[in-house]
Write a structure and sequence with these properties.
The complex is a heterodimer. By secondary structure, chain A is an alpha/beta fold. Chain A is built from 6 helices and 13 strands. Chain A is globular and about 65 Å long. Chain B is globular and about 60 Å long. The chains are: A alpha/beta, B alpha/beta. Chain B: Belongs to the ETF alpha-subunit/FixB family.
């Protein structure tokens, strides 16, 4: 079984978001970048399924410039076998999906996994685009993934419940908790990751279909109105008469 | 040229988020000088579909194929794509739901459209550009995105726009068939398991949310959260540490790596307000924080606050809500 795990390079979850003075770009200064937390579920689950089967390969794919390589090496340290970096800025979901679809097709991967969405762009789009480009099923968002031969059984989250879906390989799934407990690299993994293959390839396909014109931060709160704990019922009156939300 | 709106139904009712989507689609149509047509998915009822006229919809297409009752990715995609071609839709509007994301992403490739998800406002269409405002950085920011394709697909975030009500107006419900075959249903779910709601409110659709954190000290104390939620007609939610230790199920986890909510009222009980949690709730209209630590960062993001013990304050709030009703 050949697994392709797509990872995105995103600001750490504790990052305070700021933009360049013209509000056109995210201000990367001083920001720590991590593997997108949703993608960690995809990566760990692929490694677990490969280990359970006793054979197969896990390839990590990232669309990004050279500064994403530390996190690609981290994915290799966690247990992926090799990596591919498409040397281009991930301008929009469509552009990224084109790169993934091209590599998935060329490498004849059986299972294409990624996180539900990236925590920076929050598109939740790439999974379906890749599935459609390759003409294969997509299951998104998946909370559970098991493989038996070439048949996968997944739990897909829907609003208010879940669906049990079975698909045959090849397929795409976007992953979220509680699929697995994401792994962290150990010392041996970190040592071996240095020599695992990381191939850099140029981008293909058409340009992006969307362009970010400007970023903005949410409006600041006016300040908190404190109510005495002894008189907590007063809050309910304020919510009805002042805020008018109950 | 028209606007096609995808409306999700369940048990015969139009979902609240889809009423917002219908209203949004009708307003986009008015901006573009055209009309909005709905394609209904899920288990619909014709009388309820006709009522979409109140949101400004003129025509509703409905395929009564029984296998469309549950979500089937390929079948839904083909159904909507067929409707889009028939209506020559330039703009397709859907909910930013799990169904909307699954279908919208496939449609964008099939119809060669520009796609924007998580959209929070009506588009700007002046100057020949089509620009939408969408949530980014997990609720920590917004971005204005230009949709440069000839066709556009917009997934509208729940509770970010108000559904209009023009009482008494009705839409024409027209039977529609996309000629779906067995092959289109190959990825149909084997089983659908709904959560036991027991009179509760679903978190993604909720207008009010009562949420608990580690300050609740253990799952055995959640009756305090549930009592207040029940009195308010609210959904219950929790912070990440709480779902990580299995005090509460994962689908209740609100935050950067859980779900993002934007209710009218969010009451946080015993949650300190880590930046990752705030990202998931900061588009709520009114935020109330109850915490015994006056230095809890959540107070900075709150509209109302009570510095006090949740075990003491929550019963008082529940009693006060009951006294109101």
């Amino acid at each position: 079984m050949k697994f392709l795990v797509c990872i995105s390079n995103v600001p750490d979850t504790t990052t305070k978001i700021t933009f360049t003075p013209d509000n056109k770009e995210f201000n990367k200064a001083g920001v720590q970048f991590v593997i997108n937390p949703w993608d960690e579920y995809a990566l760990t689950r692929a490694i677990e399924l490969k280990e359970a089967a006793g054979n197969g390969t896990v390839t990590v794919l990232n669309v990004g410039e050279a500064d994403t390589e530390p996190n690609i090496r981290k994915a290799l340290a966690i247990g992926a076998d090799d990596a591919i970096r498409v040397n281009a800025a991930p301008t929009d979901a469509y552009f990224v999906a084109e790169q993934i679809a091209a590599i998935a097709k060329e490498g004849a991967y059986d299972v294409i996994l990624m996180g539900k969405e990236s925590i920076d762009y929050n598109g939740f789009q790439v999974h379906g685009m890749v599935g459609e480009m390759l003409g294969i099923p997509t299951v998104a968002p998946a909370m559970k993934l098991d493989l038996s031969g070439s048949t996968a059984t997944l739990e897909r989250e829907i609003e208010g419940g879940k669906e049990i879906v079975t698909v045959n390989t090849p397929f795409v799934a976007s992953c979220q908790q509680p699929m697995c407990e994401p792994r962290i690299p150990n010392m041996r993994g970190i040592m071996t990751a240095r020599t695992k293959p990381l191939k850099v390839v140029p981008p293909v396909g058409e340009p992006a279909r969307t362009q970010v014109a400007e970023y903005a931060l949410p409006p600041k709160k006016q300040g908190v109105k404190l109510i005495d704990a002894e008189n907590a019922g007063e809050l309910i009156k304020l919510l009805r008469n002042e805020a008018k939300v109950i | 040229m028209s606007v096609l709106v995808v409306v999700e139904c369940a048990d015969g009712e139009v979902k609240k988020s889809s009423l917002e989507v219908a209203s949004y689609g009708a307003q986009v149509a008015a901006q573009l000088g055209t009309t909005a047509t709905v394609i209904a998915v899920g288990e619909a009822n014709e009388a309820n579909l006709a009522k979409l006229g109140e949101q400004g919809i003129t025509k509703v297409l409905y395929d009564a194929e029984p296998r469309l009752k549950d979500f089937v990715n390929n079948a839904y995609t083909k159904l909507i794509a067929t409707a889009a071609e028939q209506e020559q839709a330039k703009v397709i509007v859907l909910a930013n739901s799990n169904i909307g994301a699954a279908v919208g992403s496939r449609l964008s490739v099939r119809l060669k459209a520009s796609l924007a998800t998580n959209v929070v406002e009506l588009p700007k269409t002046d100057g020949g550009q089509f620009t939408v405002k969408r949530g980014a950085f997990s609720g920590k920011a917004f971005s204005d995105v230009v949709l440069s394709g000839d066709r556009k697909i917009i997934a509208v975030k729940k509770n970010s726009t108000e559904a209009q009500h023009d009482a008494g107006k009705t839409a024409e419900v027209v039977s529609f068939s996309a000629q779906l075959s067995d092959a289109d249903f190959a990825d149909a779910p084997k089983q659908v398991i709904m959560q036991d709601q027991a009179g509760g409110v679903l978190l993604p659709e909720a207008e009010r949310v009562v949420s608990g954190g580690r300050g609740m000290k253990g799952p055995e104390n959640w009756n305090l959260i549930e009592d207040l939620a029940k009195a308010l007609g609210a959904a219950t939610a929790c912070s990440k540490p709480v779902s990580d230790v299995d005090w509460r199920p994962h689908h209740e986890h609100v935050g950067q790596t859980g779900i993002t909510v934007s209710p009218n009222l969010y009451i946080a009980c015993g949650i300190s307000g880590a930046i990752q949690h705030l990202a998931g709730v900061n588009s709520s209209k009114v935020i109330v924080v109850i915490n015994k630590d006056p230095e809890a960062p959540f107070f900075k993001a709150a509209d109302y606050g009570i510095v006090g013990d949740v075990f003491d304050v929550l019963p008082k709030l529940t009693a006060a809500v009951k006294a109101l009703n």
